[in-house]
Structure formats: structure tokens, C-alpha cells
Amino acid sequence: MSDAMANSGVLITGAAGFIGSALLRAFAAGGDGPVTALDLREVPLQERLDGVAYEHGEIRDPTLKEVIARVKPRTVVHLASVVAVGGDDRRDYEIDVLGTRNVLEACLAAGVGHLIVTSSGAAYGYHADNPVPLRETDPLRGNEDFPYARNKREVEEMLARWRNDHPQLRQTVFRPCTVLGPTTNNQITALFERSVVTGLSGTVTPFSLIADSDVVAALAQAVRTGKGGIYNLAGDGTLSLREIAQLNGKPFIPIPPAVMKGALWLLHALGLTKLTPQNVKFIQYRPVLDNTRLKSEFGYAPQLDARAVFERYRDERPEPMS
């Protein structure tokens, strides 16, 4: 019997995160074999789920190989990554790119049969000439001046090399668009929640959206079916910032891109924001993701379209504390 055949259960990296913790809850009821949660953050004993083994560790740490070798999972779901834009560029690279390489090497050494990775639609890059919509066969260009997108592209280039060199480690790669749930709180939702929603003139700024519940369901399906492949992860349709403002009952003010770049330059120089003028393309050229392959080949149809995703976020999010 091969190592891959002898392995069982699933190990989730980044298991204490937004999606990781929800995926754990989906598996905690049992039926999927042993479940192991790995995260840099310690989960308090009172918050731990029955039927889940908890490991404290970091994906950049060489001891990750020892953990995966000891657990011997059949499947690894790799969710640990940098989410926030505008952090420490070197640290972000080490986590996203070098950390993923460490996960790949640990999986191969331990005889893991299936690796599921959440990449990002940002791997396509934010470019004026992006196809609309973007399909999985379109080139991954990232952005050299946008570390988040560049790192996601490098991760996918590495994954492609590993698919060629180590086909015994089957891969499922998801490229999510903007993930939104009632408890989402990040730089994207900050755009929605200001008293006045500001966008850019001369661009529609269409947001592809996917519900956190749909992301979890697609990941769980990948674990349970073992199906490999590369899939955009997006609900049907898009919403513009203007439409989002209207749905949220907020006024919308379009600002010329040059004015926005100047404002960010000044705010960044004053230390009031981590964003730079280069980040304007993050709003100006949103990647619009096609989900045909997700539905037809992978066999998962998102339950909520873009409008329903936003309305769920708007209607179910916790009330702000006074």
C-alpha cells in the first residue's frame, strides 16, 4: 500500500481564519475522517470543536514537514495566506510564496494525495486590457507594483511546475473573487461602509462577489470528491460600486483617477494610509471572473449571485458597537 493510500483525513492550514474556521465547522460533524486544524494562532480550549485535532504551527517553519508527516492526511487544504493589502512586502512574500513551497514539499514527503489551494482572482492582475470575463485559460499577469497580485501569480506558477513534476500530488486550485459574508471586515468592506462611497470616474468598477458560505461549500466538495483542476470561484453577475452604494443607502461620488492617486500619495506620505497611488488600479480594473468551469466541470453552482451576496452581507452583519 502506498503512503497516499495509507493516509487519511484532512489537514487545514490557516484553520483559525475566516474561511478555515467555517470549513472546520462543516467537517466537525464527522464523516470525512480525521480532521486536523493547523494555525499560527492558538485556539482557546473552550472554542475547540469535538472531533478536530489542533496543531500550533507556521507554514514557513521547517517543522511543518514533521507535523504533516505525523498527521499523514490524505488531503491538505491550504488556506494560510496574506489577506490584507499593504503590509510588510517581504513578510507577505515569505508567507504566500515560500510558505506555499514549504507546504508543497511537506505534502510530497508525507505522501499526501490531494492538495487544495485557495489562490485569488488577483493572480490575473488588475489591468485595463483584462478580458471580461476572465477564464481559467487566460494568462496570469499579476502586477509587479502590487505585491499581493504578484505573489498570487508566483504561487500559481510554482503550483503549475509542481503539477508537471509531481503529478502524484493532485491539485485543486480555486481562484476566488471578493469573498463576502456577514462578518467580513477588511479593506473592501471599508469601501462599502463609509458614509459616502467613493469610486473612480470613467470606470464601472464591477465587483465579482462570492459568499463565504459558497467558498466553504466548494472547498468541502473538493475534499469529499477529490476532483482536481483550476476553477474561478465567483457568483453569477457583478455589482458596481455605484450599485453597492445604492443598495447600502449611501451616496456615491466618482473621483477622477488622477485626483485619487494624488490623495493617496499625500496620505501615504503623512503615514495616514498604507495604500499608495499604485493601488488605484485595484479599484479601477477589477477582475471579472467567469464561473462556467466551476459549474460545468467541477460541478458546483454558487447558491448566491452577486446581488444576493451583498444583500446577505448588508442585512445580516452585526450592528456596529456604539
TrEMBL record:
InterPro entries in alphabetical order:
Epimerase_deHydtase, Lipid_A_modif_metabolic_enz, NAD(P)-bd_dom_sf
Gene3D superfamilies linked? NAD(P)-binding Rossmann-like Domain
Question: Could you tell me which Pfam families the record lists for this protein?
Answer: Epimerase
Q: Where is the NAD-dependent epimerase/dehydratase domain?
A: 10-234
Protein name, UniProt field: NAD-dependent epimerase/dehydratase domain-containing protein
Q: Which organism is it from?
A: Tardiphaga robiniae
